Amino acid sequence: MNSFLKQRLYVVYTVILLIYIANTFIASEVISYIVGSLAIPMLLLSFAGASKLFRILGSIFIVVGTGMYMYSGLPFYQIPLYFTSTMPLLAFLTVLPWMNSVVRAGRFDRRINELMKANVSDLGKLYVRSSFTTYTLCAFINLSALSISQEVLLENMAKMKKKIQDSFISQTTLRAFAVALCWSPMEIMVAMTVDATGVSYLSYLPWLLLVSFIVITVDMVWGSKRYKSLPYEPAHNRATRTIESSVVAWKITKLVIALTAFLLIVVGIGNAYQLNFILSVTLVILPFSFCWALIMNRMRSFLAIGWGTWKHRTNHMQNFVVLFLSLAFFSSSLNETPFLQMIQQPFFAAADTPLIILLLIQATYLLMSMIGVHPVATIGILAEVLQPLYTVINPLSIGMVLITGALATATVGAYGVTVTMTSMNTMQNPYRIVLRNMPFAILYGGVGTLIGYFLL
């Protein structure tokens, strides 16, 4: 792919996705076919820029999907229609950087991160403070917060031993990240689960908040005790930094108010126009971000940050384009074959013992993450497999496990974005990160499973 085209992928992606979104209201079969036809060159174009892992995963989905399509005896001309089912997810990812940008434009990330730069006496206190800071930021700016928190900690812990740095950063940041996103409406796993199970986001919210609170509290207590005996050595011999607690508290309060308003608008529009959750969030993010920037009087900063961030992120969406479009073809083809029923058999066999099904979902996530399968791909397949069980098992229970199981892998997926990013930032072996966080991933998934079982 030449550099001219690579720098303008955002134009190609945006045009195709805008046509798709417009057609959700027009409902034209001709336009649906056009979008599907455009999805194929979109996939081929992205394949060259995708990472090796995603190319392998996409190739497997396409090859197996093609085999199932041919087995079903479907006509060749219908192939484009089998590539569109995951378009809403790509549209969602395309607009997400604008929400991240408005938070950065309002300097919420800087103010909240001051908490980590303040003086602390030992690493136990720093662990709690780092977890809280990362948790708060991740709920609003997702992956960007992980990078920011790790950079601050690397700077502040420069005098500490490398082994302690690696252990501390890979635990506190990744764990807070994974737990913060389980209730965020801007997390793709949450959005996919809401649409797959047909249960409203508001039904999930209190239970997801409970899981989040329990797991982050347990981890903070553990981290405080684990690192309490280690004195904190600041990287710079400066006077003790004072925190204007009222300023930070007000910033966090404003974030909570903004998120609450965002949720109410998303739910209101979804109910009023009978839209699925992913599409509702996608449609609300951009105008909401602009209005928020206007209210804060930060429009110039927002546009400067937002345009650059959006172009960069959209130009580097090849991995997700390859994954989602190939997954759409695979899932749609699978639904046309009897193989789906074969995959469903182990779950149907355990229908009388729902706990086994919930544990099976958790085990599937962990196993797939170990061999490099992205949780989005896993949830895409599980959503199809589990759908018939919603009549005998509370879909809310299944959804709770789908969400918590997927996000638990953010701490142990050796080939995942979060673990890979942490490995690169701290220059440590990704498998060491996996080993350190495996007990936490099991705890996280276990709490989600127990609450899911309680809701049966």
From TrEMBL:
For this protein, the parts annotated as crossing the membrane are 12-34, 54-72, 79-99, 132-154, 204-222, 248-269, 275-295, 316-335, 355-383, 395-417, 437-455
User: Mitochondrion: is it a keyword of this entry?
Assistant: no
Signal peptide segment: none
Q: Does the keyword Transmembrane apply?
A: yes
Q: Provide the alphabetized UniProt keywords.
A: Membrane, Transmembrane, Transmembrane helix
This chain's protein is named Uncharacterized protein
Tell me which species this is from. Alkalihalophilus lindianensis
